[in-house]
Amino acid sequence: MTDIVEDALPRLIAMRHDLHRHPEISREEAWTSVFVAERLTEMGIPVHTGVGGYGMVGVVEGSGEGPGVALRADMDALAMDEHNSFDHRSQIPGAMHACGHDGHMTMLLGAASYLSLTRRFRGTVYLVFQPAEERYGGAQLMLDAGLLERFPARNIFGLHNWPDVPAGEVIVHDGPVMAGAGEFTLKFKAPGGHAAMPHMTGDPVLAGSHFVTGIQQAVGRAVNPLEAAVVTVGSFQGGFAQNVISREATLAGTFRGLRSDILALLKARVEEIAQSAARIASTEVEIGFDDLPSPPVVNTPAEAEIMRRAARTLPGSPALHIGVPTMAGDDFGAFLEHLPGAYAWIGNGPSDRNGRLHQPDYDFNDAIIGTGVRLLSATAEQALL
Ligand SMILES: [Zn+2]
Ligand SMILES: [Zn+2]
C-alpha cells in the first residue's frame, strides 16, 4: 500500500494545487466536477455525474461479491478572496478553497486510484463527490437524487482536515462530532413614531433587544446543562435616527446543538421568545426559519471502530485520538440520518503555518494527503473484509 500511495503523491499534490487554483462556490462546481470525472475516467473508474447538481459517484468493484461502502468528499469553495501569495493561490476573485475541500477531493481521488489498482476487498466502493457542503445542503440534494437507491452502500465514511492538530494525526469521535444547525430571521414591526412618545407605538428595537437577551436564557435554562447548545444573533438591524422610534427591527441568527431533540427545543424557544418579546414591546413579529435544521454529525459505534481499525494499519502509526465535538457543522449528518457511518478529522498542522478554516490565509497541508489516502482506502478495506 505504501508504495502505490507514495508513488502517486507528486501527481496528487499537483491535482490539489490545480483544484485550489480553480475554486467554485456552492452549487457552481462545474469545472471541478469535470476535473474529478476526468481523473476517475483516466483511472478506468466508471463515474455517474449529475447526482444532485454537480454531485457524482465513482464505482470501484472489489475482487468478489459483497456489500457496498460509500466514501465521501466535499467539493465546494467559499465566497471570499484569498490572501495567500503562493503559486497555487485562487485564480478566481471572490472564491477560495478555505476549508480544504480541494484536499478532501484529492485524498478521495488518491484512494480511488489505490482501491482500483489493488481491489483487496469484496463488494463495491462508491466514491461520493458531494457539491454544496458550505451552503444549500448538497448532501440532501444527492439523497433526493436517489443516491442510496442507485448506489446501495451499507455505511458511509468521510473526513475533514483539522487545523491546530499536529499534521497527520487522526481523530475519531465516539458519538457526536459536529453540530446540527438551523437559521432564523425575525422581523419586529410597529407603526413607529416620536422618540418622546413611546406610548403611541410599539418599539421594534426594544423587542429585538428582549429577544437577544431572552434567547440566551433559553440556552442557560431550557437546555440540560450537560448538553451542548448555542444560539447567536449575528445580525440586528433597526432604526435610523436618535429621535425616531423605528417601524422595524430585523434580527438573524443561528442555533446549534449536537442532538436533533436539542435543535427542536431551540427552534421552539426561538419562536416562543420572539412572540414574548413582541408582546413586551407591543409589536408584531414575523418569524422565518430556513427549512429544517441540518442534522448533527454523529458517528455510529461500529463505524467509528472501523475507522480506528483502519487508522491503526497506517504506516508510521499516526497518533489516534478520541475527539471532543465542535459546534461547527457539516452536512455529512444528512447521510447519517439514513446510513450508519463515521466522520474522522486529520490534523492539518499548526494554524500559524497553514491558517484556520474559513480564513483568507488558510491552505490545506499537502503533507497529510498520503495519510488521508491511506485512511480512506484502509477504511473501505476494513468495512468490506
Ligand atoms: Zn467549511
Ligand atoms: Zn469543510
UniProtKB/TrEMBL annotation:
A Pfam match: Peptidase_M20
Signal peptide: none
Coiled coil: none
Organism: Labrys neptuniae
Entry keyword set: Hydrolase
Protein name according to UniProt: Amidohydrolase
Keyword Transcription set for record: no
Keyword Oxidoreductase set for record: no
Entries under InterPro entries matching the protein: Amidohydrolase, Bact_exopeptidase_dim_dom, Peptidase_M20, Peptidase_M20_dimer
Domain Peptidase M20 dimerisation residue range list: 180-278
